[in-house]
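Researcher: Quick test of sequence recovery. Tokens follow.
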């Protein structure tokens, strides 16, 4: 998963990368890279008290959350976050949660999702990406063919409505 921060006009400001593989651990180790801050806007990953630019985690099996971290954003300025997902299990779904607006944007799995926003204050931990198992597809139940019978046979247009199942 790659997350990038852009200005409203499409200028790339910063980004980070999370790689998932069964050989990685969900701990901070030598395979993760701490974020080197720049003087402008920053986008990192907040994990266990560290801000990272690269994180390697075990494959998402049932649920996982990545807290995005931002700094030096300009108040009232508009930005967007681009979340690029690739090589994910088809049974995993995800959302970007906006904790300021209390809103979720569904991720387009194995594609790109754009999340526009305007800075509203201290937005450093405004967004997080949450993955989970997809909900099972609803089962389609086929009902028996029905035939409607209107009337009681004595008064046309007036009577009871019967549903007869075949």
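Model:
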């Amino acid at each position: 998963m790659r997350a990038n921060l852009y200005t409203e006009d499409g200028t790339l400001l910063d980004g980070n990368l999370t790689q998932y593989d069964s050989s990685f651990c969900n701990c901070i180790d030598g395979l993760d890279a701490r974020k080197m801050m720049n003087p402008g806007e920053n986008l990192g990953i907040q994990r266990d008290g560290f801000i990272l630019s690269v994180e390697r985690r075990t494959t998402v099996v049932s649920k996982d959350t990545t807290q995005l971290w931002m700094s030096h954003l300009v108040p009232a300025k508009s930005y967007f976050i681009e979340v690029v997902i690739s090589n994910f299990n088809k049974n995993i779904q995800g959302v970007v949660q906006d904790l300021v607006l209390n809103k979720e944007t569904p991720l387009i799995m194995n594609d790109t999702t754009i999340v526009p926003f305007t800075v509203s204050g201290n937005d450093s931990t405004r967004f997080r990406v949450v993955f989970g198992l997809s909900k099972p597809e609803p089962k389609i139940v086929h009902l028996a063919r029905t035939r409607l019978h209107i009337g009681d046979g004595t008064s046309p247009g007036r009577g009871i409505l019967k549903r007869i199942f075949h």
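The chain is about 0% helix and 50% strand.
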